[in-house]
Protein: Cytochrome bc1 complex cytochrome b subunit
Organism: Microtetraspora malaysiensis
Amino acid sequence: MDTPPKAIAGVSTFVDDRLGAGSFLKRNLRKMFPDHWSFLLGEIALYSFVILLLTGTFLTFWFRPTMGEVMYNGAYEPLKGVMMSEAYASALNISFDVRGGLLIRQIHHWAALLFIAGMVVHMLRVFFTGAYRKPRELNWLIGILLLSLALFEGLTGYSLPDDLLSGAGLRITQGVILSIPLIGTYIQFFLFGGEYPGEDIISRFFTLHILLIPGILLALITAHMILMWVQKHTQMPGKGRTERNVVGAPFYPAFMAKAGAYFLFTFGVLALLGTFAQINPIWLFGPYTPADISAGSQPDWYMGFLEGSLRLMPAWEINLFGTSGGTIPLSVLIPALLPLGLIMTGLALYPFLEQWVTGDRREHHIVDRPRNNPHRTSIGISAMTFYGVLWLLGANDEISANFHIGLYETTIFGRVAIFLGPAIAYFVTYRICLGLQRKDAEIVSHGVESGVIKRMPNGEYIEVHTPPADDILAHMRGKKEIPVIESAADREGIPPKGARSLIGRLRAKMSKAYGTDRVPLEEGHGEEHVAVGAGEHKEGH
């Protein structure tokens, strides 16, 4: 590690002689990266974004983002002679007349789905392991902003072909905008350039989709990577790992080779999906006209939870000042703003709320195992359940039709499950986490089953337990107690200054509930034996 390889030294010398950056390259090309599969989940989103840029550039050469009406005369016979927008005609042209166009379009759509999926699983990994804690709060907020922008990027791209399916989604978007009190009509006129559907929405979405939002995404991703590089990567607890080091492989050549292979693997999967798994066959839907409707239409998966919230919400509205005033359609406004607001706002505030509850302001470079912070894990699973119910009920019509369940009963079930489901998920997850902690404590204290059966002089059969491997033991013993703020009264019965107010007492109770280590690890002593047989298990030395 003291002497860099010749390949690095040669490049560094060349660059240093001209730019004075040789020491920078020498230092950063040998930067250590931890070796754990979960740390590569974020790479999926990064590589998908690169593929999106490449395929999107190809598609812009032939796509015409205008709503001028033309008569289709392309290769797809069923639509010949049909009047449609130039945007839809050019999308058909890409699919049937441009060599390789359909494959690139399919890869682009699959990459968009994988891009958001990669960000979601990466975010879940960061949340459940507590990798958002100091000093990474800013990077966590950048990630939340990236996910929010990616949803809008997907919405704008979904609407560009101007087919019947995307037009139905655009109509829902327009309805949501109109439900916003006071400013809804102004936003709609600004976005659509007049009354719906107008003649400018495709060109405006095209500008947002290929220029503004990708530019912001690229800048934020760059900032995200730079912060990760400067702050160094988190790592799992294990043998030889501390808060002051990183155990792993250097960026060059180990991580570069791994990353290159992973990019090719991601691209290969997307190419196979684009080749063999048809997605968004716009020629089957036909051009969008406001008078046409469709049945069984579903948005892309990342918008499914908003669709579900619209379908579950009762038909509530507020009429201001009787019939002469305005109407606030709560049945649209609440589903459009509340679920997304709860999820994104909760994610953004959680690192600071946890820091406030626990009083923990230390730097953390070793992450937690999800089981070792049961409340955080339970909160995360509850949020996933909330999201999952909304996502599932976004297809309540398909569920009713295919499983022969009444649509009304399906909707009622969803309205109950949206409240009851997260509560059950919290309780079950919490108990599972405690059970897993007890299992870890048992392994640390008594060892693991060896498979060796011994017969004692009294005729009893026992199984010998042996200490776990050093790396496994170090991984389990990496558990750290969750801090709890001081709230006990002094000898004169006076509580600390911070616990005297109502908010202070609430904080103290929350901290005690959140941070109490209910299953401490215990060290074992000597060789352990467990009795085997039909009766009750016994332990002894």
Q: What stands out?
A: The first strand starts at residue 32 and ends at 34. Confidence is low (pLDDT under 50) at residues 530-541.
